[in-house]
UniProtKB/TrEMBL annotation:
Transmembrane feature ranges: 12-33, 39-55, 67-85, 91-110, 122-146, 152-173, 185-209, 221-246, 267-288
Protein's recorded name: Bile acid:sodium symporter
Lineage: Bacteria, Bacillati, Bacillota, Negativicutes, Selenomonadales
Membrane topology, from the record: Multi-pass membrane protein
Cellular location(s): Membrane
Gene Ontology cellular-component annotations: membrane
Keywords: Membrane, Transmembrane, Transmembrane helix
Length: 316
């Protein structure tokens, strides 16, 4: 099961694309799952919570400056870039709120894996994901209302409650289970990546199945907005950390964490409070940020290899 899980996670992009294509070609095969989207997200977040140990909070206590920079970057860069892109592309309200939702959500769990592959500060990445997720019930509705409230009705209090139920509560329950039943949880963690990957792919498939006709009309434009949104997040997060004097591993962690969002949460909120079209940006983001994150990790590792080679040549 561990080997299967590793294979699925390694090829998660293709799994998401495959399920998304199935949703587009055979919408009825997945659209019936739409009412269960909050439950699916809750299971994913519960799994994330099971990977958290209370000792992870020590990083927040011992490195508040690093985590503070990362959290601030997460909840300023991505929301502002999202808003500017919706204005630049003159996106209709349903799609605009979808892009903004992606920007106002916390970091995604895949960012921790990508940070590891990029030889970044994994502890910082995990702590940032944890901190932004815990803040999401309060920050995400407020920022969404602030940036999209003039274009479309945003029920911030109800959204706050939904995020607490779908995200915060499952994460805390998972962390508590890991704390009190660690030995038994260790067995579940072997198959957790496989389950999470399958559920995320299913979420994307459901969104595509419900918005397939609209996706054909606006897919190219929204895809461009998603690529730019993710790219600016990666680059600006990394640049900000550099300007504030953080080390290379920390810069990588913050850049990746800022650029990779919890798109499953964005899609769920879009389906709950807006319409299927609003979930299109999240579905596309879910595919693209795994591709761009893998490319970024590959670039960083190649850069390290070249630096090591240059250093070896100089020493000779």
């Amino acid at each position: 099961m561990q080997n299967i899980g590793r294979f699925i996670v390694k090829n998660m992009v293709w799994l998401v694309v495959l399920v998304g294509a199935a949703g587009a070609v055979f919408p009825a095969s997945l659209s019936w799952i739409a009412p269960q989207v909050p439950l699916l997200l809750g299971i994913v977040m519960f799994g994330m919570g099971m990977t958290i140990e209370f000792k992870d909070f020590r990083h927040l206590v011992h490195h508040p400056w690093d985590v503070g920079i990362g959290v601030l970057a997460q909840f300023t860069i991505m929301p502002l870039v999202a808003y500017l892109l919706t204005q630049a592309f003159s996106l209709p309200p349903a799609l605009a709120v979808g892009v903004i939702l992606v920007g106002t959500c916390p970091g995604g769990t895949a960012s921790n894996v990508i940070t590891y592959l990029a030889k970044g500060d994994v502890a910082l990445s995990v702590t940032m994901t944890m901190a932004t997720t815990l803040l999401a019930p309060f920050v995400t509705p407020f920022l969404t209302l602030l940036l999209a409230g003039e274009e479309i009705a945003v029920n911030a209090p109800a959204m706050m409650l939904s995020i607490a139920e779908m995200v915060l509560l499952p994460v805390l329950l998972g962390a508590a289970l890991n704390h009190f039943f660690r030995r038994r949880v260790a067995y579940a963690l072997m198959v957790l990546p496989l389950i999470s990957a399958l559920l995320v792919a299913l979420l994307v498939g459901v969104v595509v199945s419900m918005s397939a006709p609209r996706l054909a009309e606006v897919g190219t434009l929204v895809a461009l907005a998603v690529v730019l949104h993710n790219g600016f997040g990666l680059a600006l997060g990394y640049a900000l950390a550099g300007l504030l004097g953080l080390s290379a591993p920390k810069r990588r962690a913050i850049g990746i964490e800022v650029g990779m969002q919890n798109s499953g949460m964005a899609a769920s909120l879009a389906l709950l409070y807006f319409n299927p079209a609003a979930a299109i940006p999240a579905a596309l983001f879910s595919v693209w940020h795994n591709i761009s994150g893998s490319l970024a990790a590959n670039w960083f590792t190649r850069h390290d290899a070249n630096e090591s080679k240059i250093s070896a040549d100089v020493s000779l």
